[in-house]
Structure formats: structure tokens, C-alpha cells
Design a protein that fits this description.
The protein is mostly beta strands. It has one domain: Sandwich (Jelly Rolls). It is 0% helix and 55% strand. The protein contains no helices and 22 strands. The protein has a seven-stranded mixed sheet with strand order 1-20-17-22-15-13-14, with no helix packed on it. Strand 2 and strand 3 form a beta hairpin. The two termini are 16 Å apart. The mean pLDDT is 97.
């Protein structure tokens, strides 16, 4: 069993005024050679965007990009003709492939937007770009795993497709409840990110925005020490 802990207060941080961004892995001006990735998970940013501000049109290529709003709504527009708001409860995926451009904006005049953005290195390069988003029932993840993202060639019911043998799960784990975590593939690893609350995994207590990576294992149990919201990313390690 191989494990790694990334406490919330060890993340990189950038304050641009209109944007406050916490970087779990090296990103932009934050660089730590020991924090480059967890397997194929390359980026996990925790972004807070001020009212009436956002990211202007910019390009992406050959990356699987997943956005998960935690608070507020983020307007999206891209060169494929998609123009939609991403709201709490929804998940957005973009397979950038050969290349796309998009913008993200907080249209609210009063409220911040807080969202997570994950980048996963793709299985195949230079595919045709793809976009999708979906709303997931919060009731269907209470004390159980809800699959929100899965490989496009092994797509599970209601999950969004990406171009990698990776899965993303969400759970709302109530105090005292536990979940057994198993890998879909023994060559994968799990990266557990605590959105809110407190959980215990392999004797490690993880609080809000802490993360725990684990690979080379059969199964582990995650128990809620408080009412908790957790995002779990399963990715190939090689």
C-alpha cells in the first residue's frame, strides 16, 4: 500500500483580486516538484471567483477537464457552440482533444462562485473535442458512492464520459457511516478530497479540503467523523 497526504494548508495559493485559487498540484506560478500529479490526475484547483468577474476566452488541448461548482453558478461559452451556466449539483466535462477555446464567468452581481476544476491526462491524444454537463441528484449520494464521471468505453448509467480509464465519485457521508472503497482496476489509485466535514481513512483524519492518495491496495474503509461531503477520483497511476 502506498499513501500520500496533502493537507489543505499545504496547497499552493494565488490571490489575483478577482480570483483566489488553491492549487493541490503545481499550476501556473505555483511549482513544487513533489506535487506535480497523482497518477493521471494533473490538476485540482479550488477556485473562488468574485461577482461579475471570470476567465476570458482561452485555449485547451489534449486534457480532460472536469468542473464541479460548490457554490454559485459559472457561465460557460465555447467555440463548439455551447453556452450554458454550470450550477451547484451539476458536473461539466470537456475533452479538449485537438483543441478548443472557452470562457468562464460569474454573472452574479453579489455572490462569489466556488468551483473545483480537475485536469486528467487523456488516454488518447488529438481526439475530437467533446463537451457535456449533467445535474446529479444529491439524494442519490447519501452514504453511498455516486459515479459522476467514467471512461467513455465503460460508461456507467448517468455518468459523464471522459477519454481516460478514470472515474469520479461523490458522496455525502453522514456522521458514523462508512463506505468501503475498491478499485475498478488494480493499476489505478484513489485520490480522496474532502469537500467539507471530516473523515477517517486508514487511521488518517482528513478535514475540509484535505486530500489522501492511495494505491497498491485491495480495499479501504472511509468513515465519517462528522457529516461530510467527499469527492473521490480513481485514475491510472502509470
Amino acid at each position: 500500500m502506498k499513501t500520500i497526504i496533502h493537507k489543505a494548508d499545504t496547497r499552493g495559493y494565488a490571490d489575483h483580486g478577482w480570483l483566489k485559487s488553491y492549487h493541490t498540484f503545481s499550476f501556473a506560478s505555483y511549482h513544487d516538484p513533489k506535487r506535480m500529479n497523482f497518477g493521471m490526475l494533473r490538476v485540482l484547483n479550488d477556485d473562488i471567483v468574485q461577482p461579475k468577474m471570470g476567465f476570458g476566452t482561452h485555449p485547451h488541448q489534449n486534457m480532460e477537464i472536469i468542473s464541479i461548482p460548490l457554490n454559485g453558478a459559472l457561465s460557460h461559452k465555447d467555440n463548439m457552440g455551447n453556452k450554458r451556466a454550470i450550477e451547484v449539483g451539476e458536473v461539466q466535462v470537456m475533452s479538449a482533444g485537438t483543441g478548443l477555446t472557452h470562457s468562464e464567468f460569474n454573472d452574479s452581481k453579489t455572490d462569489e462562485v466556488n468551483f473545483l476544476q480537475l485536469w486528467i491526462i487523456p488516454e488518447k491524444m488529438n481526439i475530437e473535442p467533446n463537451y457535456d454537463q449533467r445535474k446529479f441528484s444529491k439524494e442519490e449520494r447519501i452514504n453511498t458512492l455516486q459515479t459522476v464521471v467514467a471512461p467513455k468505453n465503460k460508461l456507467e448509467e448517468n455518468a459523464l464520459p471522459i477519454n481516460q480509464q478514470a472515474y469520479i465519485y461523490r458522496t455525502t457521508l453522514e456522521l458514523g457511516n462508512s463506505i468501503e472503497l475498491k478499485l475498478k482496476d488494480k493499476n489505478n489509485g484513489l485520490y480522496i478530497f474532502v469537500e467539507d466535514g471530516e473523515v477517517k481513512v486508514e487511521g488518517n483524519v482528513l478535514s475540509k479540503r484535505d486530500a489522501f492518495g492511495i494505491s497498491d491496495f485491495e480495499n479501504v474503509t472511509m468513515k465519517a467523523e462528522k457529516n461530510s461531503k467527499v469527492i473521490i477520483i480513481e485514475v491510472p497511476m502509470q
